[in-house]
């Protein structure tokens, strides 16, 4: 049973929402760390543009982690953001690129965004029936994450705006 009331939701529904949000919290913490890792390890032409672009992305995602964690707490849960929990519960592979070119990192980062945004959308649709507050939070986050992905893709695109295969 929750430590306190669940914002007007029955316990079973609140637990489903908390579970979904905890999964999103893990993904956002992982993205935040991955973005900073890329920031430190990107090299080559256009280095400075990418390096400087990523810090605001990190800051935005850090705000999202706080927002999700606080929503979990508001629903009577206990958000878990420890490194061990993040590493042991994520369902995707470790970002294993170390020092590498702008193109290498941005292609990999594009794939990270695609996966995270896709998972956000899946949860968003499930939450639409259970909790419009959490749903709306993820809608706003997805919009910002898609904008961040667009910035990444703009660095990868050719003169015609096409992404390399």
Automatic annotation (TrEMBL):
It comes from the Bacteria. Keywords: DNA-binding. Pfam families: Ferritin. Transmembrane segments: none annotated. Coiled coil: none annotated. The keyword DNA-binding applies. Residues 20-159 form the Ferritin/DPS domain. SUPFAM superfamilies: Ferritin-like (SSF47240). GO terms for molecular function: DNA binding; ferric iron binding; oxidoreductase activity, acting on metal ions. PANTHER family: DNA PROTECTION DURING STARVATION PROTEIN (PTHR42932:SF3), GENERAL STRESS PROTEIN 20U (PTHR42932). Belongs to the Dps family. This is Non-specific DNA-binding protein Dps / Iron-binding ferritin-like antioxidant protein / Ferroxidase. It comes from Euzebya pacifica.
């Amino acid at each position: 049973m929750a430590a306190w009331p669940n914002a007007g939701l029955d316990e079973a529904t609140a637990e489903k929402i908390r579970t979904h949000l905890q999964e999103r919290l893990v993904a956002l913490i992982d993205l935040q760390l991955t973005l900073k890792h890329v920031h430190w390890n990107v090299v080559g032409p256009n280095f400075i543009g990418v390096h400087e672009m990523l810090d605001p992305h990190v800051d935005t995602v850090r705000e999202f982690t706080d927002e999700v964690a606080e929503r979990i707490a508001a629903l009577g849960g206990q958000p878990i953001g420890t490194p061990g929990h993040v590493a042991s519960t994520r369902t995707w592979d470790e970002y294993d690129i170390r020092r590498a070119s702008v193109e290498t990192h941005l292609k990999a980062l594009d794939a990270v965004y695609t996966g995270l945004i896709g998972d956000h959308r899946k949860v968003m649709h499930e939450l639409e029936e259970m909790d419009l507050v959490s749903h709306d939070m993820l809608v706003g986050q997805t919009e910002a994450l898609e904008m961040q992905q667009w910035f990444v893709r703009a660095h990868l695109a050719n003169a015609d705006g096409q992404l390399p295969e």
